[in-house]
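Here is a typical protein record:
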Amino acid sequence: MTAEEGIYPNVREAKFGAGGRVGVTTGGKPFKRPTLIWVGAKPYEVVYDHDALALIGQQRGQRLLGFTTSHDLIITLDHTVKEPIIRDTLAHEILHGLWLDAGLNEFHDATEEQIVNALAPRLVLLLRSNPDFVDYLTFSLEAEAEE
């Protein structure tokens, strides 16, 4: 049994990791991990690779759950942790992409209001452009278990 298969008791079938990214709940509803996220006009590939992250983390002297490479447009996530952590980490890494897309890395004295004004329309565009990501982020296996 993989770590992903043991996350929720009501997941009948899980095929995560480097290969497939689809799980099927006992109610038959599919849920998918995103493999492509549009951040502004840039398509970020989402890769689920524990070993690649371990290598990057070793080079940086850190234990990483996710890492964004903006020049390659790749978000790498550790697929060996529980699904809620993967979701939070993906959202975290996407926020790095939004930060760069808004050019906020070049403004060291921006006010909170300037930052929020720069990020808000990009966040709305991100959510509109990536309905599969929104479904994945908001999919609740716990709510289905109550049905």
